[in-house]
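Weekly modeling sync, notes
Attendees: S.R. (lead), two postdocs, one rotation student

Agenda item 3: backlog of single-chain predictions. S.R. asked that every request posted to the team notebook include the full sequence so nobody has to chase files. The rotation student volunteered to paste the first one in as an example of the format we agreed on. Action items at the bottom.

Example entry:
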Amino acid sequence: MADKTPCSGGCACSGPLPSATDAGERQVLRWLLAINATMFVLELGAGLWAQSAGLIADSLDMFADAAVYGLALYAVGRSAALKQRAAHLSGWFQMLLAAGALLEVVRRVVYGADPAGGAMMAVALLALIANATCLAMLFRHRNGGSHMKASFIFSANDVIANLGVICAGALVAWLGSPWPDWIIGTLIAAVVLSGALRILRLREPGVAAG
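Predicted structure, as returned to the notebook:
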């Protein structure tokens, strides 16, 4: 039988009070959701303007991450099985976005593009700062439930992707060729896909696969 906990109105409410860990996770995930949603809009606009497949791929990764953090936020304080399902759903969503990023690279290779290397580096540097901040905020929760482990994997992948776009922007500016941008767009999609597969293998203790 659930414990009765007095609420502020003097009534008896069933169920445990939220833990300090749950409250901390919720606060971090709200910040991460806001940061990634903002950076998705900024990077997508900049990627379209700069004709950069790398920035567009990274913006789609930001969008996927925002969705992942939303799912993780929903899973906080819930059952282990639900946390696992939320993590796995986010993994499948990441795979879908990775496929979208690859299609964008193929489209730009076929139809051509002239990416702006300077703009790529500037926007990717801003995204790197945002994602490094997210990673630092998640660090103390990295060994939590599947939903938090998935969030940490996504943020770590984002930092790698941002560094790749910065390098690609420098090569585009130096060589005057769009190929570094197309290559990094493909690599970002591969990193996202790899992270998605890692997340799909996450298991909560005592929860069956599936």
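Discussion: group reviewed the output briefly. The radius of gyration is 20 Å.
Action items: rotation student to repeat for the remaining queue; S.R. to check formatting next week.
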